[in-house]
Amino acid sequence: MKSTGIVRKVDELGRIVLPIELRKNLDINIKDSLEIYVDGNSVILKKYLPACIFCNEATDVAQFYGKNICSDCLNKISKIVEKE
Fold first, then answer.
1. Is the domain of 54 the same as that of 40?
2. 9 and 42: one domain?
3. Hey, what long-range contacts does 38-43 have (CB within 8 A, 24 or more apart)?
4. Are residues 36 and 6 in the same domain?
5. Predicted model pTM
6. Nearest CA to 37 among 46, 27, 48?
7. Under the phi-then-psi rule, with left for phi > 0, alpha for psi from -120 to 50, and beta for the rest, what region is 5?
8. 62 lies in which domain range?
């Protein structure tokens, strides 16, 4: 884990502010979702990327009936349906 040297206080509502330099470097924009992980005493924030419900791939993902599915899995499902 790499230290940024940035220190922020938690406010009375439990919030912290991510500095703009950090947000720019990590491509975190207003309204982006972040996943929160815990590793021992560390809290890790990661930009949320929707992943395929079948293979967990996070690239080329589309919504299908409210579920995330990648093009690879969609093609595989299409081939199965064509055979039936």
1. no
2. yes
3. 42/1
4. yes
5. 0.60
6. 46
7. left
8. 50-84
